Amino acid sequence: MKRPILIHPDPRLKKLCEPVAEITPEIAQLAEDMLETMYDAPGVGLAAPQIGVTKRVIVLDCSKEQDARRPLAMVNPEVVWESEDLSRYEEGCLSIPEQYAEVARPAEVRVRWLGLDGAVQEEQFAGLWATCVQHEIDHLNGKLFIDFLGPLKRQMITRKMEKLKRERARQA
Ligand code: NI
Questions:
Q1: Predicted TM-score (pTM) above 0.85
Q2: CATH number of the domain at 11-171, please?
Q3: What CA–CA distance (Å, rounded) separates 53 from 26?
């Protein structure tokens, strides 16, 4: 089931999310809903707090072609290694629609997480996958990509989002 995506600013997007103790049917359903919501948006990643669930769950799929989909659901993901060299990407966020800014992050990261089958997995990511997985893990710590920007740029984007939310509320 598709879920509504919260738009910044929202206190639920600033929370430190709780680790998941075990993979239950509810967690599997949450991940499935998140993937459906992400593909529908469309986006390449989504974190549970973006649909108002403050648990450490993210989904992502940075594959380019539709027929080569690689949906990944990660529970309690953590970066266990990061490269010294950085790469810059123009980032966006489904909770901050139509706003983009360049952010520098480690070019490669190794991530450990719990899969929906309950098994621990570990994988090294590069390119857009590396950027995306770091962006989504940040969400679990209440951090948005605009927090990497200077205060003026951040305030400008936040004001635009407040205006967007007012407009949407009027239309509802
Ligand atoms: Ni985001």
A1: yes
A2: 3.90.45.10
A3: 12
For residue 96, the CA-to-ligand 1 centroid distance in Å is 7
Q: How many angstroms does the Cα of residue 134 sit away from the middle of ligand 1?
A: 10
Residues in Cβ contact with 76 at an 8 Å cutoff, skipping those fewer than 6 apart: 19, 20, 56, 113, 114
The pLDDT value recorded for residue 64 is 79
Q: Which residues of 25-155 form beta strands (DSSP E)?
A: 45-47, 57-60, 72-82, 86-93, 96-106, 108-114, 120-126
Instruction: Show which residues are catalytic.
Output: 136
pLDDT tens figures, 60-93: 999 977 678 999 999 999 999 999 999 999 999 9
Length of the chain: 172
Q: For the chain, what are the domain ranges?
A: 11-171
